[in-house]
Amino acid sequence: MDIFKKCYDFDEDKKVKEQGLYPFFQALESTEGTEVVMNGRKVIMLGSNNYLGLTFNPKVKAAAQKAIDDFGTSPTGSRLINGTLCIHEELERRLAAFMKRPAALVFSTGMQTNLGAISSLIGKNDIVVTDKEDHASIVDGCRLGLGEVKRFVHGDLDQLDRILGKIPEDKGVMVVVDGVFSMGGDIVDLPKLVKISKAHGARVYVDDAHSVGVLGGGRGTAVHFDMVKDVDITMGTFSKSFASLGGFVVGEEDVINWIKHTARSFIFSASLPAAMVMAAMAALDIMETEPEHVEHLWENARFMMKGYRELGFDIGKTQTPIIPIIVGDDEKCFRLWKELYEGGVYTNPVIAPAVPHGMALLRTSYMASHTRDQLVRALEVFEKAGKKVGVI
Question: Which fold has domain 5-51+291-389?
Answer without folding.
Answer: Aspartate Aminotransferase, domain 1 (3.90.1150)
